[in-house]
Amino acid sequence: MRQNKPIWAVGLMSGTSLDGVDAASLLTNGIDIMEFGASCYQAYSDQDREILRSGLGKWPGDLGLEAVAALVGDVHLKAAQQLPAADLVGFHGQTLAHDPENGRTHQLGDGAYLARLSGMPVVWDFRSEDVARGGQGAPLAPIYHWAMARYAKLSAPLAIVNLGGVGNLTWVDPQQPPETGVLAFDTGPANAPLNDYMSLTFGLAYDEHGALAASGRADSPIVARVLQDDYFLRAAPKSLDRDDFSYILALVADLNQADAAATLTAIIVACLAAALEHMPARPAQMWITGGGRKNRELMRLLQEALPMQVCDVDDMGFDGDMVEAQAFAYLAVRRARGLPTSFPSTTGVGLPLSGGRLSPA
Q: Which end of the chain, C or N, has fewer beta carbons within 10 A?
């Protein structure tokens, strides 16, 4: 594979919000973005989400993973088959458990199986080697965020925040190489507690447009209690498991439904405000990606609370639904060409690392 020749890659991403699989095509040489291609979304059904939830917190070899593995393989294959054939596939898998402090992470999914059935080579298991070498294994999108800032021809520092199940932030100085111009970390809980609350209380996947939260009042002492968690005192880079803040649901259990949703939404905002302390310099803009950007109340509160322009990444010329899928297409090309996918300033790994396994078709 010629190092400088752009190739088409497909990225497949299923996040901790458990809503579905994003699939996106990207033309890249592993450094710069040349062109965005087709994309699609393969939604999980309510039954699928229950199967996925049954696997959360489980590790390889634990009982009860067969149905989860079959579902993950089937839905990702369907998503990949909806797009034109590519030179390479980046397959994230489904994160079930993440415990980097003890050298463990678990993204369920068999890339070799996907390669055989799709007829395309697959890069997968992106996080394990990073964790084995002392890194957090997350977040991995920061190097793609750096490429986005270059594609947008920016010169000033920028923050890109993905609001999925967990919030993660990348601070980018596009004038610098990634080794010195990127800092990344998980900001704290994002959609996961709110989505779980909506599912348990109403049988709904999420608070649509933040309507329920907008009708309630946040409980400030509960928000303050969450920010006392030791996680917020730790220096970046740092990362979280989806359920590290699962105790939040118990904190809002005695609130009325609107106030509970408002409090869970306010926690997301407070976590991002706290993240400002870890940035090397305050950016003029913060681009929001992921499902959280569609929550109008959340976006309103972010703009109100943060001392910079808060933008939906769609308004900046990108597809906010597909940024993470595109990121894994980009990471796959970098891995295939031996370029680093994680750095000391993004995951805490000791040296820049090109992570992931490559399975031929």
A: N
**Any residues with CB less than 8 A from the CB of 249 and at least 6 apart, and which?**
193, 196, 197, 200
Listing DSSP states for 259-320 in one string gives: HHHHHHHHHHHHHHHHHGGG-SS--SEEEEESGGGG-HHHHHHHHHHSSSEEEEGGGGTS-T
Whole-prediction pTM: 0.90
Instruction: Report the CATH number at residue 207.
Output: 3.30.420.40
Query: Which tens digits make up the pLDDT trace of 266-316?
Result: 999 999 999 999 999 999 999 999 889 999 999 999 999 999 999 999 999
In a domain, 148, yes or no: no
Q: Which domain holds residue 195?
A: 153-316
With respect to residue 147, please indicate whether it lies within any of the assigned structural domains.
no
What does the block give as tokens for 113? Answer: 């199986």
The residue ranges of the chain whose pLDDT is under 70 are 1-3
Examine the domain organization and report whether 311 and 345 are in the same domain: no
* CA 299-301-303 angle, 5° bins: 70
**Mean pLDDT rounded to a whole number for the chain:** 95
Residues 6+ apart with CB under 8 A from 70: none
Asked whether residue 129 falls in the same domain as residue 204, the answer is no
Number of domains in the chain: 2
Q: What is the pLDDT of residues 167-177, one digit of tens each?
A: 999 999 999 99
Tokens in use for 230?
Answer: 């030791």
In a domain, 220, yes or no: yes
